[in-house]
């Protein structure tokens, strides 16, 4: 039974110690996204969903930054920007980029 293994909690704490920047950045993006969304007057359910999406996007930024050779601490700033601007703003920009790059050939 894994709950009785004395090394389980030591392993969990060791993982948290190595992954704390990811949790910090995702938490920061979550809080900023939640506050911005509530301040904008969105419904509570939409605010929570947008904040969760901002946190998940920030977690996804870590491996991308590592792959590009950029400092992974930059993910906290990326997550804060995503949360501050809002997911709808980024969605609109992604749609515009899609139309410019691929839309004209797919019509």
TrEMBL record:
Transmembrane domains' residue ranges: 12-35, 47-68
Top-level lineage group: Bacteria
InterPro entries: Phage_lambda_GpS_holin
Keywords for the protein's UniProt record, in alphabetical order: Membrane, Transmembrane, Transmembrane helix
Transmembrane keyword on record: yes
Protein name, entry field: Phage holin, lambda family
Organism: Vreelandella alkaliphila
């Amino acid at each position: 039974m894994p709950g009785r293994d004395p090394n389980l909690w030591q392993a969990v704490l060791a993982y948290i110690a190595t992954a704390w920047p990811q949790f910090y950045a995702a938490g920061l993006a979550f809080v900023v996204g939640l506050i911005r969304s509530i301040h904008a007057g969105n419904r509570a359910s939409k605010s929570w969903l947008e904040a969760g999406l901002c946190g998940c996007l920030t977690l996804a930024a870590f491996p991308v930054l590592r792959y590009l050779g950029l400092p992974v601490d930059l993910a906290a700033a990326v997550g804060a920007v995503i949360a501050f601007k809002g997911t709808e703003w980024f969605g609109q920009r992604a749609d515009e980029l899609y139309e410019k790059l691929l839309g004209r050939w797919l019509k």
